[in-house]
Amino acid sequence: MATIETPHPMDAPPAELRFRRRIELRSAMGELWRSRGLIRALAERDIRSRYKQTSLGVSWAIMTPLALMLVFTLFLQRVAKFDTNGTPYVLFSYLGLIPWTFFSTSLSIGGQSLVSNTSILNKIQCPREIFPVSSILVAGFDSLVSVFVFGILLVINGFLPRSTSAWVPLLLLIQIAFTLGLTLVVSALLVYLRDLRHALPVFLQLGLFATPVAYGMNLIPARLRSIYAAVNPLSAVIDGYRRAVLLGRSPDWGLVLPAVASTTLILGAGYLLFKRLETGFADVA
After folding, report:
1. How far is 8 from 20, CA to CA, in rounded Å?
2. What is the pLDDT of residues 28-65, one digit of tens each?
3. How many domains does the chain have?
4. Is residue 73 part of a domain?
5. Would 86 be classed as within a structural domain?
6. 219 inside domain
7. What is the DSSP letter of 82?
8. Cα(103)–Cα(99) distance, integer angstroms
């Protein structure tokens, strides 16, 4: 009867020959910075191809938030009568739609950025995160156009931004960090789980109504708002924009601080996950 010999521990490869994926943050950040020219080129390519041969051109960047604003104003606001603290609902809803559109566009484009760039992925030696990062720049371009339209809406409604708008850069930083963290996670997982591309639009549709875009944070029970902001940092960002730009108030730190904590965790964990899975992108994609 044949016997199965178990490998002796001495037969295992020596420790110095075993592959370990080591992630050095400073080195990775330096490599990403050196690739900024490629990031800009990818973003410009995507922006040009997105609006090339379209009759309305970059006007499409404002179609989604404008259409949703009209739907919210004509239907939801008439039925639900959301409390806007005296500000015009058009401004209230549109200001919430700007960060949401940035977030959803980043996830939609950035989530599939690795799969849609396999020809480049397999030929160029570069940090793979440049693809989701460039997609976020594309979403940022759309947001700039939307901000311009928001300025027009302010003039039409005879409304001036408050001096507390100085808090906007801090809120913008949280928004970008949160979006980048989730985009890195989704783009990495979608390479291995292709079904995720079908689930992503459903997730974004549900997220639109789970985030205080059409309504305010006052609809969330007070005892749950901090938890809500930690689970969905975008809610704290949108609420902060409205308070700072429209109401002349400082952001609600009871919402912002939990959002900062969870955003830091999401960005850090998302980047580590991305780098861990990075070695298999070229083979699987």
Report:
1. 22
2. 778 888 888 888 998 988 888 877 766 666 677 778 88
3. 1
4. yes
5. yes
6. no
7. -
8. 6
